[in-house]
Amino acid sequence: EDGALCEAFGVWQLKSRNGEDKMGIVRSTFIISPNGDILKSWDKVAVGGHVDEVLEAVQAL
């Protein structure tokens, strides 16, 4: 609710859309280990084909 998690993961950033700058969430993906370590991350994710990239990364672990 307060945005603390977004701040902690660095996904709350200034974004520009239609010539207007405002804060928003950058579409991101994280692979997090059971003990909470970030094993892999992607930011500014484009949806098309991304699931295959994530699956490949998970299978390589």
The SSE string, one letter per element, is: HEEEEH
**Whole-number average pLDDT?**
92
Main-sheet strand order equals 1-2
Tally of DSSP helical segments: 2
Would you give the CATH topology?
Glutaredoxin
Can you tell me the number of structural domains?
Answer: 1
| Proportion of strand residues | 35-45%
Structural class assignment = alpha+beta
CATH homolog superfamily:
Glutaredoxin
Name of the CATH first level: Alpha Beta
Shape: flat
Work out the radius of gyration: 14 Å
- Give the low-pLDDT segments: none
Q: Report the end-to-end length measured between terminal Cα atoms.
A: 32 Å
Helical proportion, percent range: 25-40%
* CATH-scheme architecture: 3-Layer(aba) Sandwich
**Strands, count:** 4
Major pleated sheet: 2 strands, antiparallel
Describe the protein.
With 61 residues, the chain is an alpha+beta fold. It has a single domain (4-59), classed as Glutaredoxin (3-Layer(aba) Sandwich). It is built from 2 helices and 4 strands; from the N terminus they run H-E-E-E-E-H. The protein has helices at 4-9, 50-59, and strands at 12-17, 20-25, 28-32, 38-43. The strands form 2 sheets. The chain has a two-stranded antiparallel sheet with strand order 1-2. A two-stranded antiparallel ribbon has the order 3-4. Strand 1 (12-17) and strand 2 form a beta hairpin. The protein is flat, with a radius of gyration of 14 Å. The chain starts with a helix and ends with a helix.
